[in-house]
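Priority: medium. Attachment 1 of 2:
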């Protein structure tokens, strides 16, 4: 049993894409792979009127899990595109951290390796008193931080890494999302340099911009191949715990 937590410097940085990419790579290495997200905001209603997390659906497909496991992968689905604490208040839903933790532990115990995606940034409020960092802390999961080589993101990466350390979380490294090698100029290259220099963490890979077709078609094998070519999965596994049983 091995778990890897995925957080990011902000929302819309690409946690779900990177989480799915890691899950696809683990699945196609032959591991029984689990995925989990404690809560999801901005969910949509399906034809039956049920709220569905498209993020959870993507993760399920990447891990090769049946879509019927949707509710096991994400226990709280909320319609408003706000932090779970506020989205749940508007919906009249009470989020119980114990429920989120129990679901995560069940997924971890039932899988050889699980990718656990956070919500928003590491200090995003799941409830008024319970933040994403508390969730990861109780699970004692090693973390990767997803970054994007854009102006201002070095500052966000440094703050995220330091905040995690202050709260006793183990961060194993950074993954750059949306990397375009052909267009990478002084800004992008300097981001790579300062990410490592100022956080003291290694860059574990640079996931390129993925086509919308690939994401929409849930082509997990192709995604796994792209991931293996651009992210150092062996190093992540080693830093996160070394052995997968």
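Attachment 2 of 2:
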């Amino acid at each position: 049993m091995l778990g890897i937590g995925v957080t990011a410097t902000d929302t819309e940085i690409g946690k779900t894409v990177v989480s799915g990419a890691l899950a696809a790579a683990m699945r196609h290495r032959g591991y029984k792979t689990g995925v989990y997200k404690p809560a999801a905001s901005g969910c949509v209603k399906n034809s039956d009127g049920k709220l569905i997390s498209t993020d959870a659906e993507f993760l399920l497909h990447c891990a090769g899990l049946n879509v019927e496991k949707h509710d096991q992968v994400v226990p709280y689905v909320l319609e408003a595109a706000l932090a779970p604490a506020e989205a749940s208040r508007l919906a009249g839903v009470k989020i119980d951290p114990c429920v989120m933790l129990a679901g995560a532990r069940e997924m971890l115990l039932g899988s050889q390796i699980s990718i656990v995606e956070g919500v928003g940034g590491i200090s995003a409020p799941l409830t008024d008193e319970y933040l994403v960092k508390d969730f990861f802390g109780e699970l004692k999961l090693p973390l990767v931080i997803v970054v994007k080589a854009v102006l201002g993101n070095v500052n966000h990466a440094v703050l995220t890494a330091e905040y995690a350390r202050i709260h006793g979380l183990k961060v194993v490294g950074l993954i750059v999302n949306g990397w375009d090698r052909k267009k990478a100029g002084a800004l992008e290259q300097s981001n790579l340099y300062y990410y490592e220099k100022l956080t003291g963490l290694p860059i574990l890979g640079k996931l390129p911009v993925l086509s919308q077709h690939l994401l929409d078609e849930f082509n997990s094998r192709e995604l796994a191949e792209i991931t293996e070519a651009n992210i150092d999965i062996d190093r992540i596994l080693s830093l996160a715990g070394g052995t997968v049983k």
